[in-house]
Amino acid sequence: MNNPKQPLIIRLASKLLNPRGLDKPQKLHDAVNNKLILITGASFGIGEETAKHLAKAGAIVLLVARSADKLQAVADDIQKAGGRAFIYPTDLSKPEHAKAVAEQILAEHGHVDIVLNNAGKSIRRSIAMSENRFQDFERTMAINYLGPVQLILALLPSMRARKSGHIINISTWGVKMPAGGRWAAYQASKGAFDTWLRSVSVEIKQDGIATTSIYPAIVYTRMSAPTPWMHKLPGMTTEDASHVIERAIIEKPYDISPEWLGIGQVTSVLFPTPVRKYLEFVFKLSKDSEASINSAKH
Ligand SMILES: NC(=O)c1ccc[n+]([C@@H]2O[C@H](COP(=O)([O-])OP(=O)(O)OC[C@H]3O[C@@H](n4cnc5c(N)ncnc54)[C@H](OP(=O)(O)O)[C@@H]3O)[C@@H](O)[C@H]2O)c1
């Protein structure tokens, strides 16, 4: 889901405000040709686009998500274009399924070179509307934290034995900033995995395993679409996001963030009270989206 109709000024701002992506496709081929790359959330959005790019560059992509028909369609597109793709329809919010799919993949392919932890669920809903919705907090923790933890726990022994591997996490810019209103379920769960991986990273670096955490702001996908103002702001297309992931694969940096995020972090440390007041002001000014109100009725 890209946004070609945006005004030129927004498109220019998008280029300036978002992390730089890979600009030399030949480098990608050299880095991923014949590599086994497991991509979670490969049925839509960032995961789908990245799977297609990596397969085109010669990777063998292992596609995980719940929607079997959509995964099959992505794999068919890849195979028609001459690429290699295998599908693993799985609900990663169930830890036992996350473990089973990791074991199946290792049994069928022997190892995994790169894991792109990308599957996720976003909820933007005020706490007043969440009072009877404990399930919002359970399901975001299940897919954004516990499922990926179990998946990676099951893959780590093989990576450690081979002294090689790269885990790339699609985090979110919000986990580096003071949390804004309406994001309690999403931010807490994304923050939990972000912290988990950064702690684990210190240990597995000694075993030859790299991690990269990517902190995107807005990406134009079905995830951000229910909050319509997001698609009017500068952001990344799924293609832009894929190029950022491709750069992560080649350069293996510890962290990829938009340049302005560092300034935001310093500001929030130096001026905590005005930043808090600003967040309260934004909360008062904004509303729960129609989509959030409607889905809370079910
Ligand atoms: N869009 C943004 O503005 C934005 C900004 C910052 C970070 N991110 C992060 O980027 C990542 C990708 O998001 P996106 O924007 O590409 O969203 P998306 O288009 O909604 O894709 C989410 C993917 O996750 C999969 N998924 C969801 N629940 C799952 C489950 N229980 N088990 C297995 N797979 C599951 C979905 O597939 P199925 O429904 O088929 O299972 C889908 O393939 C997420 O981690 C998100 O937090 C997005």
Task: Please explain how this structure is put together.
With 298 residues, this protein is an alpha/beta fold. It has a single domain, classed as NAD(P)-binding Rossmann-like Domain (Rossmann fold), CATH 3.40.50. It is 52% helix and 12% strand. The chain has 11 helices and 7 strands. It has helices at residues 8-17, 25-32, 45-56, 68-80, 95-109, 134-162, 184-204, 238-251, 260-270, 272-285, 290-296; strands spanning 36-40, 60-65, 84-89, 114-117, 165-170, 209-214, 255-256. Strands 3-2-1-4-5-6-7 form a 7-stranded parallel sheet, sandwiched between helices. The model has no long low-confidence stretch (mean pLDDT 94).
- The dominant shape is globular
Determine the structural class based on helices, strands and strand pairing.
alpha/beta
CATH architecture: 3-Layer(aba) Sandwich
N-to-C order of helices and strands? HHEHEHEHEHEHEHEHHH
- Ligands: NADP nicotinamide-adenine-dinucleotide phosphate
Mean pLDDT: 94
Query: What's the CATH topology name?
Result: Rossmann fold
CATH superfamily annotation: NAD(P)-binding Rossmann-like Domain
Number of strands: 7
CATH hierarchy, class? Alpha Beta
- The percent range for strand residues is 5-15%
Low-pLDDT segments: none
Distance between the first and last residues' Cα: 26 Å
> Strands of the biggest beta sheet: in what spatial order?
3-2-1-4-5-6-7
